[in-house]
Design brief:
342 residues; alpha/beta; 43% helix; 18% strand; binds (2S)-2-hydroxybutanedioic acid; 13 helices; three-stranded parallel sheet; D-Maltodextrin-Binding Protein, domain 2; single chain
Length: 342
């Protein structure tokens, strides 16, 4: 009898801890979390990201929280965890797939482990304009790429803007490929980025975003590439002197959730989340543009800034030819052609 009672207690504890681990559903949703109802479900969404105060994605996440909590009449709570305080960029993907968080927005490059085609935004000098870039992802072939993530348990809710990447370093202005020789660049992971710097004669080390300032400050690396809002909000200007406006690649953010969480929601809940996401996306992209203009002005006051001319860019493009040859087959000629010059 005692033994049976003991087994019953163990079973009950197990059931309760499983219920507590089923992230995303708040206690209020409890057993009534059937996804067939028409009422917005009571849930809590954990939204984790690595952006600092002053970055467009940080502003976007806060706006999404504000809109969704309001639109759902307070039924949905959004807890935003910025600056990698919950998960850094090495851990956030696993945390999302385990449903420990329900939304993250890694830079697109960090999705290459699921589909190497996402490196298309790293291909140097491929996209030419912001408008062309968003047309490719919002209306063109890029949209197909996001659907390849669904098999991996990932649903894309929006695409937020970072911007065109620029080069920052501690040694000299960059005008021609030879100016990168021997520089040690911090990069996000990815074969295209490694190859890009190798072809240009520089070293590249993969370092998590939230550890990059210290790596630059202590001289582990002396250079990096990023878009203006990240350069400014990460305060790289405190430790680096030269900024080159090269617009050589993009850094932008798919805002993603996991299928375990998403498929557990009813239509009314999905709808309100998607509506809030669409509004926040519009806001975030506008903020990203404003910030990048403003930050360039601020950075010009404290850094030595030069901008690559079209002729200078062409010299880089010529030197980078082996990279184009190698990655066309990885990304797909049809995708590269659709993006080229946009
Ligand atoms: C980076 O690693 O440089 C970026 O992905 C950081 C960010 O804005 O997410």
């Amino acid at each position: 009898m005692k033994k049976k009672f003991g087994i019953l207690v163990v079973l009950l504890v197990l059931i309760f801890s499983l219920a507590a681990c089923s992230g995303g559903e708040s206690k209020e949703a409890g057993g009534s979390a059937s996804n067939s109802g028409n009422e917005i479900q009571k849930i809590t969404i954990k939204f984790s990201h690595v952006g600092y105060k002053g970055a467009p994605k940080t502003a976007g996440a806060d706006k999404f929280k504000e809109i969704l909590e309001e639109k759902s009449g307070g039924k949905i709570k959004v807890e935003v965890y910025p600056a990698g305080q919950l998960y850094g960029d090495r851990e956030e993907m696993d945390a999302l797939l385990a449903n420990n968080v329900q939304i993250i927005m890694p830079s697109m490059t960090k999705l290459v482990v699921y589909n190497p085609q996402f490196q298309i935004l790293d291909i140097p000098f491929l996209f030419k304009t912001r408008e062309g870039f968003f047309d490719f992802w919002d209306n063109g072939k890029g949209k197909e790429m996001f659907s390849t993530l669904e098999d991996k348990g990932i649903v894309t809710l929006g695409l937020w803007e970072g911007g065109f990447k620029q080069l920052v370093n501690n040694r000299n202005p960059i005008k021609k490929p030879g100016d990168l020789k021997g520089l040690k660049f911090r990069i996000q992971a990815g074969d295209v980025l490694e190859k890009q710097f190798k072809v240009l004669g520089a070293d590249a080390s993969v370092i998590p975003y939230n550890e990059t300032y210290t790596a630059l400050q202590t001289g582990v690396v002396d250079s990096t590439e990023n878009m203006l809002a990240n350069i400014y909000s990460s305060k790289y200007q405190e430790v680096l002197k030269y900024l080159t406006i090269s617009n050589h690649g993009r850094l932008d953010y798919p805002v993603i959730t996991n299928t375990t969480f998403w498929n557990g929601l009813n239509d009314a809940t999905k709808k309100v989340i998607q509506e809030a996401m669409d509004e926040a996306t519009k806001y975030e992209r506008e903020e990203a543009q404003k910030m990048s203009e403003d930050y360039l002005k601020q950075l010009s006051k404290v850094m030595k800034v030069n901008e690559l001319t079209e002729e200078e860019k062409n010299v880089f493009i010529k030197q980078l030819q082996p990279l184009y040859d190698e990655f066309e087959s990885v990304i797909g000629k049809d995708y590269m052609d659709a993006a080229r010059g946009k």
